[in-house]
Every structure is written in structure tokens, then in C-alpha cells.
Amino acid sequence: MGRDGNKSCFACCFSTPTTSSSSSSSSSAIKLLFFIVPLILVSFIVFVLVPRNSTWALIYSLPPSTSAVAAAANSSEKLGAAVYAESSQQVLDLPSRVVKTVDVGGSSGEATLSDSDEVAVNRSASPQLSAVEAVTKFQELNETKEYSSLNTSITDSDNLNITINGTPNNATTSSNETIALPLKHNRQVRTKLDKVEAGLQRARSAIREAKNGSQLRDPDYVPVGPMYWDAKAFHRSYLEMEKQFKVFVYKEGEPPVFHDGPCKSIYSMEGNFIYKLDVDTKFQTKDPQKAHVFYLPFSVAKMVRFVYSRDSRDFSPIRRTVVDYINLVAQKYPYWNRSHGTDHFMLACHDWGPEASFSLPYLEKNSIRALCNANTSERFNPVKDVSIPEINLITDKLTGLMGGPSASRRQILAFFAGGVHGPIRPVLLEHWEDKDEDIKVHKYLPRGVNYYDMMRNSKYCICPSGYEVASPRIVEALYNGCVPVLISKSYVAPFSDVLRWKSFSVTVSVDDIPKLKEILMNISTRQYIRMQRRVLQVRRHFEFNSPPKRYDVFHMILHSVWLRRLNVRITDDHGVVAN
Q1: Can you spell out the DSSP letters for 72-134?
Q2: Is 123 within 8 Å of 157 (Cβ atoms)?
Q3: How far apart are CA 542 and CA 513, in angstroms?
Q4: For residue 575, what pLDDT is reported?
Q5: Which one, 48, 53, 534, 572, has the greatest CB density within 10 A?
Q6: 235 and 333 in one domain?
């Protein structure tokens, strides 16, 4: 009883407090369960039902030439296009000019966005668009926005930098956060170069169509006759040149070597062309992005005078001058490197013009070289190079240099007077100097005999090459209504891409010099009269005028350069395609 009493006492002592504590704990646990269980259930439902791949990240595509990626919140143009990410297997495949790059060697790469860049884009995003809406928006941008070049970088206020013509920056994001746009619904972004090339393509089509079309009207001159390979095509090409041809003249360089040249000498075309083009307003453009070709305004004749040392006989100073100048413009502008010089041209009438062009491989092999010394044995390439006439101007006018009687009043069969130099003239003098009354060949003219009067009274004027293939006698003969007799090796006559020289001149090989009189006598009077009339008609293309006139020598040189430019297509990714 005592023990039980003690137990009861012990139990009574502890029973009341224990029951009270259990009741309080149970109440707290129940409350805690009511709070935790729903939270666990909600978390479980969210875990089960919500996809694991995040669909909150938006990828934006922008045209490549917009300044400051227009997804920035403060951009006034609002050009951003948001595309919803649909699948972890889809990859970014926007137009190549936006995310794909091609280097000079042709290898390609893809630009992707880093996590930080993606955040920057999403933070400044415009409202979400569907894929179709995004493409529609992108097409509208292509039609309304002009782009300057692909050689640019796109940078916004959030430091998103995508280099279009190089390796993209911050290219680390995985492909499962991007989406492909349907390229078949998108048109290529048109840069200014694209527009230039589109204009050239229209010109090519017009020239091809002109061959079978009717003769075009022209208030000044309509090319017709056998003097032209294709008179209609030439006429249309010339009109297309007048309509759209643009030349950018590099302003770098100082006279007398640059932007200067001889204007009153045998090399006068160098100085006169440089000067006429420098002050021209019709063909010259101040915007290089609108230019079809780029002119390197140096004078080889002035380099020989001011850079070359005759005592040293060292040509390297001229080479260094050419290389330094091209390096200068190549570093300052992107256009030389874009085409490796294919759409650039130089002009030289000095005998060393070809040698100066050898200073740089791209200048010789790619660029258009307008040369008086058009010698195929010295790597002149008629497909890309231009043969220009050598004109010996005494003044800036042609007064007294042109004229002559009609064909029937010319009494001398053939005439030549000139110094003995080069391999051909000694042969000519050996066989014909003072040996025939009909063939007037002189080393020096007799006293009192006028050179131009002799030309005007001659039916044929003999034009042999000297040290170099070109001779000013060819133009002098045309000016005086005398049919030129060309005796040379490896010479490409001026403007022979347009003019059919055999219709108004005679070509005699060096081996046939002893038969010269026989060859000329075998040409009938009727044929000679036809040739002489063609000389009078075609000589307008060799006339020097100040200011220049349509179809004269200045415009014919430009036209020949224009034709070479029509033969190639230039792309922003350093591509050149021959037509």
C-alpha cells in the first residue's frame, strides 16, 4: 500500500504536467502540419508539371548594320525582334550576315551570345513576337533601312558587341537557348555594295539586250560602222556609264607625286587625267560606299623626276613610294582589302608604268592598270588592263594639230620621221630611208619640211614602236586624217575592247618591213578611202578637250575602266567573282 501509494504519489506528481505538455505539443504540430503539407504539395505539383527547360530567355536578331543594337531601351529606332525559344534541340541559324562570318580564306564561324550578353539583350527587350511576326518585322527592316557595310561592329548601350566580318565576341551560350528563323521567308539585307552591284547587273543586262535592239538616239554622236566591234552594245554601255558610273579619288598624298602630273609632254595623259578627274563632278563621288572603282592618283612620270635618282639607277624608291601609298589607303579605308585591289585602278603613260605596278603583287595581278605601254610581253593583261593612247601635247589645246585634205588630195604613199631607238626602227630605216619616192622615211626631216604637213599629205603614216611599244604617232596620224600603219610586237592598241582597229589601220609585222610598199600598194583606192573616212570618224575618241567632251579620250579611258569593272562582282566578304 505504501509502495502503491508512493507510485500513485509519483504518478500524481508527474501525470498532470505531462498531459499538459503533450496537449500543447500536439496542437503546435498540427498547426505546423497544416502549414507544411500544402507547401510540399504545391512544390511537388510545380516540380512535376513545369518543364525543366527555361522558356523565359528570349533571343533577338537584328540587321547587321544598325548602330547600337536597337534592343536597347533608349533606342529611338526600336528594331529588336524577340523570338520565343521552343526546343532544346533548335540552334541559332539567322542570315549569314548577322551571325555567320567568312574570313579571307573562306572559313566560316557562328556567333552565339554569352550568358551576360543574353541578359543584356533580354533586359532591354521589346515585347515578345511570334516567329512569323519576327520574320515579318525583319523583312520590313530590310526594306526600309540602308546599311553601310558588313565590315562593321554592332554595339549597344549594354555592351553587346557582334563583329560581322570577324570572330564573334562572347560566343559561349549553349545552342539549346536559341531558335532558328525560317530563312526561306527572309530576304538578304542589302548593303550599299549590294546596291552598287545590282546597278551593274542592270547595266550588263541592258548592254546584252542592246545587241539585238534598235539603234539608240543621241544628240551628240551615234556610234555606227565597222570601226566598232559592236556599235549598239558600245553605245548602250557608254550611256549606262554616264548614268551610274562613280569613281572615288583618294585624297591622300601631296603634289608633285600625287594629284599632279605632266600636262604638256609625251606623258601628258598622266597629268591631264589626274587633273580632270580631280575637278570632275559628274563621275567623281565623295562617298566611297557609292563608288564602283577607286583611283590611285599617283604619277609615275613625277616619281621618276622627284623620287628616282638617275645616278643611282635604283628603282626601289619608286617601289617604296607605291607600296607606302597603298598601305596608307588600305589602313585608312576598307576598300582595298575588301577586293584585294580588284576595283582599284592606276594610270601611267611613262615607260616605267608597268614596272611601278610590279611593286605590289595585287596591284599588278588584280587592279586595273591603264597604261600607254600596253605590252603583253611585259604582263599587260587585256582582260583587266586598259590600253590608253600616248598623246604628245604642246599646249592644252588641239589648235593646229588636227586637219588635212581629203583622201584624193594626198600625194605621199607613206611617211615616217623619228629617232632611231628600239629594235624595230633600225630595220625600217635600213630598208626605206631615202630609198623610195613613195615611202618617205627619215631619221631627221630636211630643213624647211614641216612634220605635220608631211602627215597631212600622206595616205599612210608609219608608226613603229621605239624602246616601248606605244608611240604618239598613232594619235598624230588620226588627228591629221592619215591611216596609221602599226609596226610593233606584243602591242595592244588603245580602246581595242571597243574599236576594231583593222577597219581603219594597217598592221605590218617586223618581218614584213621589206614588203611594206607592196603591202600598201595592194590596198585598193576604194578600200583606202573607206579607211580614211573611218579615221576621221573614230578620231573623236582620241581628242583631248578642256573641258572634256562626250566620247573624247577622257571619257573613253573612263569607259574602258567601266568595262573592266563590269567584268567582276565584289562582295563584302572579300569575294571577287568574274563575270
Answers
A1: STT-SS----EEE---TT------HHHHEEE-TT--EEE----HHHHHHHHHTPPPEE-HHHH
A2: no
A3: 27
A4: 75
A5: 572
A6: no
Which grid cell is 124? 532591354
Q: Over the stretch 376-414, which tens digit does the pLDDT of each residue have?
A: 999 999 999 999 999 998 876 676 778 899 999 999 999
CA distances from 189 to 62, 381, 492, 517, 572 (A): 11, 35, 42, 65, 12
Question: Count of domains in the chain?
Answer: 3
User: Residue 41 carries which DSSP code?
Assistant: H
Contact yes or no for 548/332 (Cβ under 8 A): no
**How many Cα atoms are found within 13 Å in the side-chain-facing hemisphere of 202?**
12
**Cβ(147)–Cβ(64) under 8 Å?**
yes
Residue 265 shares a structural domain with residue 220: no
**C-alpha 555, offset from chain centre:** 20
> What pTM did the predictor assign?
0.69
Residue 130 and residue 84 in contact, taking contact as beta carbons nearer than 8 Å: yes
Contact 64, 97 (CB under 8 A): yes
- Range of lowest pLDDT (182-196, 237-251, 494-508, 554-568): 182-196
Q: Are residues 457 and 365 in the same domain?
A: no
CA angle in degrees (0–180, nearest 5) for 483-484-488:
160
Domain region containing 568? 245-393+547-578
> Alpha-carbon distance 409 to 26, whole Å?
138
CB atoms near residue 79 (< 10 Å): 22
